[in-house]
Design a protein that fits this description.
- The protein is an alpha/beta fold and 252 residues long.
- It contains twelve helices and eight strands.
- The protein has helices spanning 15-29, 44-48, 59-64, 90-100, 109-115, 134-142, 154-158, 160-173, 192-204, 218-225, 230-233, 238-251, and strands at residues 2-6, 34-39, 75-76, 82-85, 123-128, 145-151, 179-188, 209-215.
- The protein has an eight-stranded mixed beta sheet with strand order 3-4-2-5-1-6-7-8, sandwiched between helices.
- Helix 5 (109-115) crosses helix 6.
- The longest helix is centred in the N-terminal third of the chain and has 15 residues, at 15-29.
- The protein is globular.
- The two termini are 17 Å apart.
Length: 252
C-alpha cells in the first residue's frame, strides 16, 4: 500500500478537493483499492461522501484508543473500491490528549494501525488539516509521499518553507522513507501575475513541481454542494480533466 499525504499549512488551496479527486480517480477510474483518511477536524472529506457523524468511530479513536481494530473505523463508501476513515470535531480533543501523553511512539499510532492493512489496499490517501499537530505528525510518520497543493499567491507560498522543513525533520527523525512527491499548482487561471508566480515556484524550490496544473472553475464549488467528487459531478469541466491528467502523471 502506497501512502500519500495531501498537505499544506495554508487553507483554501484545494487540499481536500485534491484528496477526494485523487482517491476517486484511483478507485473508480483505475480500479485500484483505495483508502482515504480524513485527518481534518472539519471533516469535509467525510462530508463529501455523506458519512459524517459524531457518533461512529473515527480517526480520533484510532489515534487515542489502545488495541483498537482499524477495521472497526473503516467505512465503505458508495464506490466499490473506495473506503474511508472519517473525521469529526473529536479530533481536537484527540490532539490534546496525544500532546499531553508523553509516552513513547505517540506519533507512530497511525503508522502502526496502517501496517495491519498493508495488503488490503493499493493506495491510502490522507487529507490533512492545515496545521502542525499530533494528528498531522502521525500522518507524516505513516506517509511515503507528500503532495503539496499550492495556489499562485503570496500567502500560499509563505507556508512552503515551514512545511518542507517539518517534512525533512520527520524524515530524519522518524520516517526515512518519507519524501516530497512535488508541488501541485491548484486554482490556476491565466494572468500575468499567476504566470509569474508559477515561474517563481518552478525556479525557486528544490523539489519538483508537477507538470499538470489544476484550473479554477466554479464547478468545483457546485460539486461540494452536491457532496460529489468533481469528476462525477462534471466529468468534462476543466478541473476534472486536469485532475485526471494529474493522476496519470502521478502513476507514471
Amino acid at each position: 500500500m502506497q501512502v500519500i499525504s495531501i498537505m499544506s499549512f495554508k487553507g483554501g488551496v484545494a487540499k481536500t478537493i485534491t484528496a477526494i479527486c485523487l482517491a476517486y480517480i484511483l478507485s473508480v477510474v483505475f480500479k485500484f483499492r483505495v483508502l482515504i483518511i480524513d485527518n481534518d477536524k472539519q471533516g469535509n472529506a467525510t462530508k463529501s461522501f455523506e458519512l459524517h457523524s459524531e457518533e461512529r468511530k473515527s480517526i480520533s479513536d484510532l489515534l487515542i484508543e489502545r488495541n483498537i481494530n482499524i477495521h472497526d473505523v473503516i467505512l465503505p463508501t458508495k464506490y466499490e473500491n473506495l473506503h474511508l476513515i472519517p473525521a469529526n470535531m473529536k479530533l481536537v480533543e484527540a490532539n490534546m490528549k496525544m500532546l499531553l501523553n508523553m509516552t513513547g511512539n505517540r506519533d507512530k499510532r497511525l503508522a502502526t494501525a496502517l501496517d495491519e492493512i498493508q495488503d488490503e489496499y493499493d493506495f491510502c490517501i490522507i487529507d490533512n488539516a492545515p496545521d502542525l499537530n499530533m494528528s498531522t505528525q502521525n500522518a507524516l510518520v505513516a506517509t511515503d509521499e507528500v503532495i503539496i497543493p499550492v495556489k499562485m499567491d503570496k500567502y500560499s507560498f509563505d507556508g512552503i518553507n515551514e512545511l518542507t522543513e517539518q517534512i525533512e525533520f520527520t524524515k530524519e527523525d522518524s520516517n526515512p522513507k518519507l519524501r516530497i512527491g512535488g508541488y501541485l499548482i491548484t486554482q490556476f487561471y491565466n494572468s500575468e501575475y499567476t504566470k509569474n508566480k508559477e515561474e517563481e515556484l518552478r525556479n525557486s524550490y528544490k523539489y519538483p513541481v508537477y507538470k499538470t496544473r489544476i484550473r479554477r472553475t466554479p464547478k468545483v464549488d457546485e460539486s461540494t454542494d452536491h457532496d460529489m467528487p468533481i469528476l462525477e459531478y462534471s466529468r468534462t469541466c476543466s478541473a476534472s480533466r486536469d485532475y485526471l491528467d494529474f493522476a496519470k502523471e502521478l502513476l507514471s
